[in-house]
# Entry
Amino acid sequence: MSKILIVDDDPDLVEAVTMILESKDYDVIAAYGGIEGLEKAKTGEPDLIVLDVMMPDKDGYAVCKELKADPKYGKIPILLLTAVVSKIPTTRYTQQMGLETEADDYVDKPVEPAELVRRIEVLLGKA
Amino acid sequence: MAKGARILVVDDEQIMRDGCTRILSKEDWEVVTADSGEAGLEAIKRGDGFDVILLDLMMPGIRGMEVLEAAHQVDPDLLVIVITGYATVESAVEAMKKGAYDFIPKPFTPDQLRIIVKRALEKRSLQREMEVLRLEREKSLRDIATEKSRIATIINCMGDGVLVCDRDSCVVLSNPAAGRMLGIQESSLIGKPLSECRVDGALTDIILGSLRSLDSAFPTVSQEICPTGGSIPTFLMAHTAPVKNDLGETLGAVTVLQDITGLKELDRMKSDFVAMVSHELRSPVASIQQQLSVILEGFSGDLTERQLRMLTRAKERAKGLLDLISDLLDLSKIEAGMAVQYKEPLQVEELLGKIHEAMLPEAEVKRLKLKLHVEPPLQAVQGDRNNLGGVFTNLVHNAIKYTPEGGEIDIRVKGEAENIRVDVSDTGIGISKEDLPRIFDRFYRVKSEKTRQIVGTGLGLSIVKHIVEAHLGKIFVESEEGGGSTFTVVLPTVSTPSR
# Structure
């Protein structure tokens, strides 16, 4: 079964996402900050990373950029969890940042469980 | 004038005085007589306000000529007609030289006397009118001078900067505040073309644009500038309007500069605060919603029907809260001037086409006819695609929300002078007269039986208005309760010189 790393500084959100993913029989490992996330991405051999954007120690964009620049881990698909959904002005910002950091996909927080699962399946090539 | 005129007859002969009195009294003139030069002079000096004096030159005592001189010392404008005895033309000429108005030789007929006095009175009347006009003119000139000095004082004392340019863009008037704000000595501004004044480039462009502008729908252009002249960074709001004559020709441009540095700072602090609070609010609420959806989907075990109902409601409420926070964030961003940063020339009808397509399913749910009408040719507007998209999406979304099933929504776009006009009209519940003026206010929501079921944050239209105004456009609404609403957005096209 695929192993998914969830990185978010909010433990409640990590728990919620973990429950969704575990119900679909994914192996889930969790990290509660950008630096920890980066470390677990390198040591935990995840097949996919669900990555929060706004984190105090190191934000998701920075984590994403670092991983994608590394030939060893650059191929791991990254799904960004964008925190600030503001309908009008930031859409382009999030899109641009998402593209610039070469994340594979992004989804607004909170996400409907079915939608999260669907996106992950697409990224893992299972859809 | 002729009526009630006062005439003094100075003659030593009783018969002359009586004769004149009889003839002149018939004309409704008041006649006063004096039997000697001394008596006449006394009457004149008393200032009895005579209009015409009939003066005999040949009298015992003071001679008429002396009376004439003395009379003119009292009132240089006094009209004196000399009565000359038996064709002594020389004395008549001498009297005229000394300022007599006319002469009448003895003997004379009543008609001759009447005519000559009447003429003198007419002259007197003209003199009076001229005097009145002269006084009025003097007063007007004084008023103008006073007004000029007053305006100059007002302009010089004003805290706001004033800059007036003629049509050749030469500075013709400025005040110390303008010099201070622009970091340029005021005296080095006057009389020079703007381009030589080291005035901020953006400001020069605005003024030149205003001078060039034709019949623009927006004669007054307000734009924020940040002049680099001063040592401390300042933010100015420049309001510029062309000065036109009665033929509509541009004679110059007036610019009023407002220092908004303090305001901007306050505004920034407020926006920072709102953004901070919103972020802090948003994360936990997003988390709550995420947890609720996990429970609702049964990932943590089965739910009873009652739990399901209550949690569904809780999730809806959390979503409403999240929407509100998002809107607040939007608003604070827009107010901080962080939005509308990606302006590019774009065709509004293309944008509307996409929105129309995207909104069709939502309209179909309520069996609403959603139509787009495009009236080419349409020029491009300078705008931010996402933000303008948000504006029209919001308007169409509102139309769908507030229109009962089976209704119709029309989106119309057409060119209008130097603008693009977009109308979004619906056959919905309309807006009452009381609500109409406040519809764009923050947090204002129409509360009625019909709108109770409709959710919203009350920020949508406020955000829309901000965005439209950031594009130098205008938004207005026409509506009648129960008779549908039409929201109109007017955006200047790219070619508009006054921006």
Chain A has one domain: 3-123. Residues 85-99 of chain A have pLDDT under 50 and may be disordered. The interface with chain B takes residues 10, 12-13, 15-17, 19-20, 23, 54, 83-92, 109-114 of chain A (CB under 8 Å).
